[in-house]
Write a structure and sequence with these properties.
Layout: H1 18-25, H2 29-40, H3 47-67, E1 70-71, H4 72-82, H5 90-96, E2 102-105, E3 108-111, H6 115-122, H7 124-129, H8 133-156, E4 158-171, E5 182-187, E6 195-204, E7 207-210, E8 219-224, E9 232-243, H9 247-253, H10 263-268, H11 284-293, H12 300-314, E10 316-317, H13 329-336, E11 338-339, H14 341-354, E12 359-367, E13 372-382, E14 386-390, H15 392-400, H16 404-409, E15 411-412, E16 418-422, E17 447-449, E18 460-471
Parallel strand pairs: 10-11
Antiparallel strand pairs: 1-3, 2-3, 4-9, 4-18, 5-8, 5-17, 6-9, 7-8, 12-13, 12-16, 13-14, 14-15
Helix pairs in contact: 1-2, 2-3, 12-14, 12-15, 13-14
Organism: Tetragenococcus halophilus (Pediococcus halophilus)
Domain Transglutaminase-like: 333-394
Protein name: Transglutaminase domain-containing protein
C-alpha cells in the first residue's frame, strides 16, 4: 500500500484478527508485527483486512515508541518528585480509579508520557499537592482570563481581538540528502466567518503554497531539495470576533422551539448529519446512550443541551495517545468516560448528528497571554439561530471547578482566544501529503515528510510564539 493511502483512516473500523488483538493487548508488539506480516503475505487475506493491517503497523510503532514511556517504578518516582505526600504504590491506586492512561508492554504496565500533567489538570487534590507553584499561578491567571472574557461578552454581546503569531517546524535530528525532497506544513487561520484580515507577514524557507482562506484544513506549505536548512517559519496576524448567545434563555422562553429540521435544512446539512468512519459512527451502543439522555418530545436545543451536559459532567478530561491509535473515538469516549478536548468534541458531534442536529468539528490553537497550544471544539446548528459553538472540555473543566457560569457559557459560545485552522476531521491539505501524516485527524502542530517517510511528532520541533494580542 502507498504511504499516503494510510491517511484515509476509515480502515480503523475493520476489526483486527483475534491473535493480533491478543498480542497487542498484552503489549507484545513484536509478536503482533510478526503476525501482521504473515497475514499480509498470505494469499487468502482480503484486501480490506490487509489495509487495516498496514495501518496497524503505524499504530504499533506509535504505541511502542514514545506514547507510554514510563514503567510503574519510574511513574512512582515521578509522582514523588512532582507532588508532596505521595503514598507507596500510589500508581496502583491511580490505575484502579481510572485516573491515568496506561497500556501493557510485554505484560508490564507503562504510563502515558503526560500522566503527571493530567493529574494536575484534572484532580484538585493533586493540583493542591503540586510542588511547582509557579505553574499553578499561571493556570490561575488563565482561569481569571476566561471569567473576565465571559463578563465582557455578556456586557457587550461580542468581543474582537487582533493576534500576531510566529510558528516554526523543523526535524529534531539531521536528515540525509538521499531522503529529498522535503515537504512541510504549518497551520494558518481559515475563514470561518469570525476571522478577519488574516495576513502573512514573513516566512523562512521555500514556500510552495499558501492555501485558500476557505481551505478545510488550511496550511502554508514549504518544499525544498536541500537537506541543509530544514527550518521553516511563518509570522502572521489575524483578527477574530466572538458573539454571545444565551441558549439557556432561549430554552426557558421559546417552548415552541423546533423539534426537527425542515426538509430544506436536512438536505442542506447532509454532511453534517452523516457518519464518518471510523470515529463518527452511529453504533448500537451510542443509540442506547442517546436514548438515556434524550426523549422524542424534546426540542433540538434541549437535546443538544442534554448531550453537552453528559459530556461535560460524566466524561473526565484525560490526555490521550495519538488519535489514530484509537479505532473509534466517539465510542471510546462514551465507554471509558474520559478523553481530551478532541475526543470529547467528537463524542458531542456524533451524538448531535444521531439526534438530528447538524454538528461539525473545528480546531486549531488556543492563544492567550498565558498559554498557546493545540485545542479542539465543536459547533452545531440550531433552526432560527444558526451555527453556535460548544467547547466540551472547557465546560467540563468549569463543572469540575464548580464554576456554573462558565459551564453554561461554553454551551453556545467560544472566546476570542482561538486560531481556527481546521473545519473537519480527516481532510486533505490542498498540497496533499504523500507520506503518512503525524496526525491524520487534523493539523495543529504542523507536518513534515521526506521523499521516503512522514516524521512523527517525537521527531519534530514545533513552536508557536505569541507576538501580540490586542483587544479591539
Amino acid at each position: 500500500m502507498k504511504s499516503f493511502e494510510l491517511n484515509d483512516i476509515s480502515y480503523l473500523s475493520v476489526p483486527l484478527p483475534d491473535d493480533i488483538t491478543r498480542a497487542k493487548e498484552n503489549g507484545d508488539f513484536t509478536l503482533a508485527e510478526e503476525l501482521i506480516h504473515q497475514k499480509l503475505h498470505f494469499d487468502k487475506t482480503s484486501q480490506t483486512v490487509k489495509r487495516r493491517l498496514e495501518g496497524e503497523l503505524a499504530v504499533l510503532t506509535a504505541l511502542k515508541e514514545d506514547q507510554f514511556p514510563y514503567n510503574q517504578q519510574e511513574a512512582q518516582k515521578m509522582l514523588e518528585e512532582a507532588f508532596i505526600n505521595v503514598k507507596p504504590e500510589e500508581t496502583k491506586e491511580l490505575i484502579r480509579t481510572n485516573n491515568v492512561e496506561w497500556i501493557y508492554k510485554k505484560g508490564q504496565v507503562y504510563f502515558h508520557r503526560r500522566f503527571v500533567e493530567n493529574l494536575v489538570k484534572t484532580r484538585r487534590d493533586y493540583y493542591q499537592r503540586y510542588r511547582y507553584e509557579e505553574e499553578n499561578s499561571i493556570d490561575n491567571e488563565r482561569q481569571t482570563e476566561l471569567d473576565d472574557n465571559i463578563r465582557e461578552m455578556k456586557k457587550h454581546g461580542s468581543r474582537r481581538a487582533k493576534i500576531r503569531l510566529k510558528q516554526s517546524i523543523a526535524p529534531k535530528m539531521p536528515i540525509s540528502a538521499q531522503e529529498a525532497p522535503f515537504l512541510a506544513h504549518l497551520p494558518l487561520p481559515r475563514n470561518n466567518n469570525h476571522i478577519k484580515h488574516s495576513e502573512i507577514l514573513s516566512t523562512k524557507g521555500a514556500v510552495l503554497e499558501v492555501a485558500d482562506t476557505n481551505a478545510c484544513q488550511r496550511t502554508i506549505a514549504y518544499q525544498t531539495e536541500s537537506h541543509e536548512d530544514l527550518f521553516f517559519e511563518v509570522e502572521h496576524r489575524y483578527e477574530i470576533e466572538a458573539n454571545y448567545y444565551d441558549l439557556f434563555k432561549v430554552m426557558e422562553t421559546q417552548k415552541d422551539f423546533p423539534k426537527k429540521l425542515s426538509k430544506e435544512e436536512q438536505k442542506k446539512f447532509q454532511n453534517e448529519l452523516a457518519e464518518k468512519s471510523p470515529h463518527i459512527l452511529f453504533t448500537d451502543f451510542l443509540y442506547k446512550l442517546l436514548a438515556e439522555l434524550t426523549t422524542k418530545d424534546m426540542t433540538l436545543l434541549e437535546k443538544a443541551y442534554k448531550i453537552y451536559e453528559f459530556v461535560t459532567t460524566q466524561v473526565n478530561y484525560s490526555y490521550m495517545k495519538e488519535y489514530f491509535t484509537i479505532p473509534n473515538i466517539s465510542e471510546y469516549c462514551a465507554v471509558n468516560q474520559k478523553g481530551d478536548c478532541g475526543v470529547q468534541a467528537i463524542l458531542f458531534i456524533t451524538l448531535c448528528r444521531m439526534a438530528g442536529i447538524p454538528a461539525k468539528w473545528e480546531s486549531g490553537l488556543y492563544i492567550s497571554e498565558y498559554t498557546q497550544g493545540p485545542h479542539d471544539w465543536a459547533k452545531f446548528y440550531l433552526p432560527t439561530i444558526g451555527w453556535v459553538y460548544a467547547d466540551a472540555s472547557f465546560g467540563g473543566s468549569a463543572y469540575r471547578g464548580h464554576n456554573t457560569e462558565r459551564w453554561k457559557y461554553y454551551f453556545g459560545n467560544l472566546d476570542v482566544f482561538r486560531m481556527p485552522a481546521n473545519d473537519d476531521i480527516q481532510a486533505d491539505f490542498s498540497i496533499v501529503k504523500k507520506q503518512l501524516r503525524a496526525d491524520p485527524i487534523d493539523n495543529q502542530r504542523g507536518e513534515f515528510e521526506t521523499g521516503q517517510r512522514g516524521l512523527r511528532f517525537n521527531e519534530l520541533d514545533w513552536d508557536v510564539t505569541l507576538l501580540g494580542f490586542d483587544f479591539l
